[in-house]
Amino acid sequence: MSSDQEIMTGTAGDLVLCKAGWVRIKEVLSPRGKSNGAQIKYKMWKNVWMMLRKCGNYNELLTYPDSVKASSFTVEGYPLCLEDFCGFEIGEFDSYPHVLAIVTRNITYLLIQTDKKEKDEWVETLYKLFEEQSIFYVSVMMNSLIREGQAELRLLSTSVILTGNNPPVCLGKWLISDIRRYGANVDFVFELSQRFVEDNKKAVVGLSTTDAKTIKKRFDEMARSSSAVGHKTHQSISKSSKSMPPQQVQIP
Predict the structure, then answer these.
(1) Which residues are registered as beta bridge partners of 129?
(2) What pLDDT, in 10s, does the model give residues 125-148?
(3) pLDDT > 70? residue 112
(4) Which of 104, 106, 149, 171 has the fewest CB atoms within 10 Å, measured from its CB?
């Protein structure tokens, strides 16, 4: 850890600095971010001093021109929202290898660290702050709520997330309690609750995958766990989400 990072690491009440260092950053809007009118600051790659800190029950990223301004505590850092965290991965983007992509519902943050050690420390910190995901490579089928094409299905304890690739952006994020029913045969299909219906069409997502049965098993586990802890949104998961018989698994 550099001397700058040693100066910056510490706690203040419920505020915990988890990681700090130089990164090269670029932001990419997701389809939802574009429709929501989300704004980004880093349209092109830029070197910044970045801090990742835990504030009570949520985490945040802040960027500064340099470490001096960050350590002075008199300059307010530019905030990057992590409220709708959707996962992270390492890949090649814009011809740069080993780019760390942090995906949120509206914006994906692409980060290039100064060296491999720095990158590994950022990844380790993210693993500590956010729960581990189950990731499946899928293809969204025609007539689905989400546009067809290659995607990644990410499953957290209570969330179902679809991300595109190169770079990864959020295509959709739902709670397990938002899902009315689901099932697997050759493919995997899930249907969302009525509040996601648009233009009188069923809110159905079909996924072509070789892992259909494994995905269904994870959905079963998530549904049981959510029901056990009394997790609710508009309806109880025990009433709203159910497995479909294999013969019913199809896209309308």
Answers:
(1) none
(2) 999 998 888 999 999 999 888 889
(3) yes
(4) 149
